[in-house]
Amino acid sequence: MRRIAISVAASTMTLSLAGCGVLNATGDGASASPTKGDDVTIGLLLPEKANTRYDKFDYPIIKDKVEELTHKKGKVSYANADADAARQSEQMQQMISDKVDIILLDAVDAHAISGDVKKAKDAGIPVIAYDRLAEGPIDAYISFDNELVGEVQGRSLLEALGSNADTSDKVVMVNGSPTDPNAKQFKQGALSELNGKVTIADTFDTKDWKPENAEAEMTEAINKIGKSNIAGVYAANDGMAGGVIKALKAAGVTSLPPITGQDAELDAVQRVVAGEQYMSVYKSYPDEAEAAAQMAVTKVQGKDIQFDALTQDKVDSPTEKKIPSKLVQVSALTKSKIKDTVISDGIYTVGEICTAKYKAACAAIGLK
Question: Which residues make Cβ contacts (< 8 Å) with residue 163, sequence separation at least 6?
């Protein structure tokens, strides 16, 4: 069951804003008396580099949007923890010492970072959980609908298996990191589709989302189940899907089973074109990143009405209830959906996808 309660009208929303130190205004952009002007510093803490989206999309999009919203007077102080929770704690403490105005936090370890979230709160620095729901007294949360991500992956895998799929079909689940609360929600969503329809023959929670860990897990599953007995693979993201494919190829599998993914990384889109990976989940990074920048700027400037309008969902974490949130929708990316997703949104060009290696496969699906 989802823990998400979506408010039905703006009039029903009540935000507990006491103590955050920056929200003294109640008007919109035209009538508010902001506590800060355009000269704001947004701290941005991103979790890892194995997934290329963070450096390639999230940071530059947030940076550009903050500059746009603040007439180029605001700035983003950026740090990436490279999957090291201790390093992220140090980075966050440095931002607290530097007295940034607000922090956008994409946690490496959602539980371990809670003490630093409280330190920021005590210092009067609001924290918005970005992409992953950090524990502690966060002020708001923005992410994609994570259970829907898993549902989309699970449904897509069943579609690939065909109408005759049943419990004789063995599926391997390569889930995300146990320290990432999103991974649990992806898995829950996928299981809501897969349970009772196929057999989960083996399942793994993959440390740090690392492709090499996924490759090792898939090798273990192949040895346990047999390479010819695996009907499909649920891989929680594209990096790990790549590791799964390496393991299958190393085992001599020439006709790959359907494999899921997430994030629409360029390598994964090319694998989808080539038929090596069945699908990815496309999440509009511009939508998420731009909304996060808007939330951060409006919150620190005290534009309450604008902030309320941006956070009309409600989400519970293990430590906080009814966190003001924004949940961005997602869609399946298969061969037939490439034009309508990553190309339409300007994430990649046809030329970037259809390099010499993939030109024939691109032509076969109408990408020219």
Answer: none
* Element housing 157 (H / E): helix 146-161
Residues 6+ apart with CB under 8 A from 10: 308, 309, 312
State the SS3 of 88-113. HHHHHHHHHHCCCCEEEECCCCCCCC
pTM of the model: 0.78
Closest CA to 257 of 282, 239, 275, 271: 275
Return the structure tokens found at 67. Answer: 């500059």
Per the listing, tokens 């995300």 go with: 176
The predicted structure's pLDDT at residue 51: 81
What angle (nearest 5°) sits at the alpha carbon of residue 11, between those of residues 316 and 130? 35
* 180 pLDDT above the threshold of 80: yes
| Cβ burial, residue 186 (10 Å; 0-12/13-18/19+) | buried
> Each residue of 261-275: pLDDT tens digit?
999 999 999 999 999
CA 169 to CA 232: how far, in whole Å?
8
Report strand pairing: 127-130 vs 170-175.
unpaired
Tens of pLDDT, residues 214-232: 999 999 999 999 999 999 9
DSSP string, 202-270: EEEE-GGG-HHHHHHHHHHHHHHH-GGG--EEEESSHHHHHHHHHHHHHTT-SSPPPB---S--HHHHH
**DSSP string computed for 161-176:** H-TT--TTSEEEEEE-
Alpha carbon dihedral 215, 196, 282, 253, in 10-degree steps, equals: 30
* Contact predicate 233/172, CB 8 Å: yes
User: Any bridge partners for residue 233, and if so which?
Assistant: 172, 259
Which residues have CB under 8 Å from 65's CB, separation 6+? 289, 290, 293, 294
Over residues 110-118, mean pLDDT: 97
Q: Rg of the Cα trace of the chain?
A: 21
Q: How many H helices and E strands in the chain?
A: 13, 13
Strands 232-235 vs 313-315: parallel, antiparallel or unpaired: unpaired
Residue 286, by phi and psi: left (phi above 0), alpha (psi -120 to 50) or beta? alpha
Residues forming beta bridges with residue 175, ordered by sequence position: 205
